[in-house]
Amino acid sequence: MISKETILLMSSALLMGVAAQAAAPKYPQAKRVDTVDVYFGTPVADPYRWLEDDNSAETEAWVKAENKLTQDYLSRIPFRKAVRKRITELANYEKMGTPFKVKNKYYHFDNNGLQNQSVLYVQDALDAPKRVVLDPNTLSEDGTVALQQLSFSNDGRYMAYVITRNGSDWNEIFVLDLTTGQTLPDHIVWAKFTDAQWLGDGFFYSAYDAPEDAKSSKNEFHKVYYHKLGTPQSEDYVEYRSMTEPLMFYEASVTKDERYIFILETDGDGNALYVKDLKDRNPHYVKLAGDMRYTNNPIGVDQGKIYVMTNQDAPRWKIVTYDAEHLSAASRADFVPEKEWVLSSADMANHQFILTYDKDAASHAYVYDAQGREKAEIALPTFGSVGFSSKKDDEEVFYSFTSYTFPTSIYAYDMSTGQSRLLFRPKVALDPESYVTEQVFYPSKDGTRIPMFLIYKKGLKRDGKRPVFLYGYGGFNISMNPGFSYSRTPFAMLDMGGICAYTNLRGGGEYGEQWHEAGTKMQKQNVFDDFIAAAEWLIKEGYTAPKKIACNGGSNGGLLVGAVVNQRPDLWGAAVPQVGVMDMLRYHLFTIGWNWAHDYGRSDDSKEMFDYLRAYSPLHSIKDGVDNYPPIMVTTSDHDDRVVPAHSFKYAAALQAAQTGPAVKLIRIDVNAGHGHGKPISKIIDEYADIQSFIMYNLGVKYK
Asked: How many CB atoms lie within 10 A of CB 181?
């Protein structure tokens, strides 16, 4: 006998969407506890506090029940397997990383298609056969061990490599002898936010003391250590630390001639910059920049000058120099002044500079000479994103370029001739020429001009009915530049006449520090207004209609989705907040969460800040009794120690308990996975097949 649900699934696309929302399922029981916190005299209940303990049997049982409910729901989407097949086809192409040179050998990463992790290769010349140096796929059976950083000793004999397990932010460091191919006994644990910086027969790295709970304990007193090869980690000495500031990060970098050591001290926003000259009679650290409101990133040292990229007195960034022979903050001088557009990166090559500027969120690259004068622009294929690999003494430069329908391609650039040469362009299971990518601008609530990229198939008609995938981030000075993604960009939906929209919200770095600040703390509502205005503009311009738009974002973007769903539930046909920051009153109490206070503010800062955070916090602003909430699928991972899963657990439990209408409220909890970095391709395909299927199903899109 054919069930009523089956009949509905076999009917029209419109009926599919109605069926998906017809009746909410029976959700797993989430008990309520009488936990109440008091902020400035205001009591705030936290009934799902017990879900913060992700090690308890009770939480484990709830997670298991929620995953079963979600997988049962997803399994009934008739085209879920077809969407997974399409994403797999798109993922199955050779991917090459940008080459880099070490002692006249060329190294690069390569992935033959569906390898969980990319493999490191070496070549004696660009046209010579490649040899495997390190295959991370051999480090675990399921691909959940990922390579994070590489660093080569200056004589080229050793390679330190940093790994992460199950997507955790915690790192381990190993050392490979490149002459023998053997891994040395040296093994560093409890490292975090670090690479390895070689000096002599050892290296610097950054780490914490071993935590009580690796997944949730607050991280305090970051330190820079020095490890000498052949000795146990217990003998490593502390090169730099603070005895009084527990909430600082410390990072060392060493120049290739091993003369200068830089220390970056940061609270997660700006940073102080220190340098030590090892040729000094009395080597000691000199503070070059100390105002934590600004960021100072050393580019390199050449011909007696230290070059630093900074946004101090330059919201759109500039380059300054310091006297390398007589270290002093007073020797600072402008080298390349602030321009109209945002300076996003600076690289040295052939004793010159390659500067990349963001113009309306797209990369433009220029060569500057040793006097800081612009020489030439490096022509790029279209608007997109570029990244360079170079050395200050070499004329040979490599760069990668990508855009939304332009998979990452690799080029060589000759500094002497100014010519680019294509080295590698992947073959992907789509025709880029069949898609249109255009940039539009729309007004936000306060009239601010916001850029947005639209991607769709050629010939698309604005009939006011197009399903739309709207993605945003808007935070931490991070620019959302164009880039190819076989997973995040829903090509399956585009091929069915849909539209993908990436919007560049305030809070990011697209237009410099003022743009960033306009989306922080008590201006955070601007970010939500920008995103809501994008949906309203798409409706006004005849692309789509309310309830035909799916909103998506991850981490800070997950917070964005949770907030805009609460503020404008009428707009959205589906919502997927991924690994989101959902509890804005307690986020700073977990792992590295305190580091986000410069963007968010904290609930214990002031009553005014508490009231502001509580008003938009996704967990605390769910509109109980408003019955037009869209279908929602929250996603998180059991090993996410950056945005701990408790955020999503508590938010999902609260959503399921609230009266927000019949549309389904689910949570998908990945296992042996973290915040997203280093995730194996197999898990990426599974996750995005579920996300895209959920969105298309609830927008009434049938995938053929």
From this structure: 11
Distance in angstroms (rounded) separating the CA atoms of residues 166 and 674: 6
Element (H, E) at 696: helix 681-699
**pLDDT for res 21:** 43
Amino acid identity for residue 250 in this structure: Y
pLDDT digits (tens, 9 = 90+) for 508-525: 999 999 999 999 999 999
Cα–Cα separations (whole angstroms), residue 485 to 256, 353, 403, 474: 35, 30, 9, 19
* Beta pairing, strands 499-503 & 549-554: unpaired
Structure tokens at 691: 């996300």
> Annotated catalytic, 693?
no
Alpha carbons 658 and 25: distance in angstroms, whole number: 13
| Triad 187, 681, 403: Cα angle to 5° | 110
- Collapsing DSSP to helix, strand or coil, 72 comes out as helix
Are 654 and 48 in contact by the 8 Å Cβ rule? The answer is yes
Between 607-616 and 556-567, two packed helices, what is the crossing angle to 10 degrees?
Answer: 80
* Residue entry with tokens 């027969």: 201
Q: CA 10 to CA 65: how far, in whole Å? A: 28
**260 vs 81: CA distance, rounded Å:** 55
Contact predicate 441/500, CB 8 Å? no
Q: Which of 151, 216, 403, 555 is catalytic?
A: 555
Q: Is 675 a catalytic residue?
A: yes
In the three-class reduction of DSSP (H, G, I as helix; E, B as strand; rest coil), residue 391 is classed as coil
| Cα separation, 236 vs 277, whole angstroms | 21
* CA distances for 207 relative to 240, 346, 430, angstroms: 11, 27, 44
Q: Are 131 and 125 in contact (CB under 8 A)?
A: no
Q: What is the mean pLDDT of residues 204-224?
A: 86
Tokens of 683: 């898990």
Catalytically annotated residue among 227, 639, 675, 693: 675
In the block, which residue shows the tokens 């009939």? 463
Strands 632-637 and 665-670 come out as parallel
Convert the pLDDT of each residue in 483-512 to its tens digit: 999 999 999 999 999 999 999 999 999 999
Residue 432 banded pLDDT, cuts 50, 70, 90 = very high
Q: How distant, in Å, are the alpha carbons of 132, 255, 460 from that of 137?
A: 12, 32, 42
Q: Model pTM greater than 0.85?
A: yes
**Cα–Cα distance between 316 and 516 in angstroms, integer?**
11
